[in-house]
Design a protein that fits this description.
mainly beta, two-stranded antiparallel ribbon
Length: about 250
């Protein structure tokens, strides 16, 4: 197959660039070792990707911002669907078409010498198109699984040079995820959640020592789950997100 892509960027003024791109992607077809009769093979998946936005910098580079919009049009979308009557068995099927549209915004700023703040937020609306069926079930206008309605990250980092040598730093960030569905039928979902990560350390010319905490508030969430009818009360089996973990890292550079 052919995957053409065209992009253009225009420097509207110093520190401001407007850009856009259009591309076509594909995913190869193949064969299913296990499937319902008539679905032993599946065809290629195609997608058109359109993106446009603006990047800007100000205050001698101390402030940078990016804003963009995008659209994705899938044809013959490949999806893992469960084999009826065979819990835990899945096959790949071309369920039909889907669209995804959204916007993203990102900004970083050095508010003071050694103090940086950052943030990013994205919104996505991904739905199956009319006439889309999965395992014989009409999923038209359902949400595409594993696609959060929004994502956001924000935080700050502080660093300071030491007279004795090296630099100490601390960083805190919060990652937020909107609700998303686990399956094409939209029968189960993960509600919105957030995870906080912290780290602090010292960086010398060749040595780095850092302490870190991930998921500092021990948020409970399930980022990945699959339909497993008949074997679990919920009809799904999932992988819980990592609990609070902490440790120390030491690195040496040459």
């Amino acid at each position: 197959d052919v995957s053409p892509q065209v992009g253009v960027a225009y420097r509207a003024r110093p520190g401001t660039t407007v850009y856009g791109s259009v591309g076509r992607a594909f995913k190869a077809g193949g064969f299913n070792p296990i499937a319902v009769p008539g679905s032993e093979s599946y065809g290629e998946e195609h997608a058109w990707n359109i993106e446009g936005g603006v990047k800007a910098a100000a205050a001698n580079g101390r402030l940078s911002m990016t804003a963009s919009v995008f659209a994705i049009e899938w044809d013959d979308l490949q999806l893992n669907v469960p084999v009826p009557g065979a819990p835990g068995q899945f096959y790949i099927s071309n369920v039909g078409n889907a669209t995804s549209r959204g916007a993203e915004f990102e900004a970083t700023a050095q508010v003071y010498n050694g103090v940086d703040v950052f943030g990013a937020v994205g919104f996505t609306r991904a739905r199956f198109s009319d006439g889309t069926f999965a395992n014989g079930v009409d999923v038209s206008d359902n949400l595409v699984p594993n696609t959060p309605s929004y994502t956001a990250t924000f935080g700050a980092q502080i660093s300071r040079e030491l007279q004795a040598g090296g630099r100490v730093y601390g960083r805190a960030e919060v990652a937020c995820y909107g609700a998303f569905e686990y399956d094409e039928a939209n029968t189960r979902r993960q509600e919105a959640y957030s995870v906080t990560n912290l780290r602090a350390g010292w960086r010398g010319k060749r040595l780095v020592v850092e302490g870190w905490i991930r998921n500092a508030f021990d948020t409970r969430y399930i980022p990945l789950a699959f339909a497993y009818p008949g074997f679990t009360p919920s009809g799904f089996i999932g992988e819980p997100g990592k609990p609070r973990t902490f440790g120390v890292s030491i690195g040496v550079g040459f």
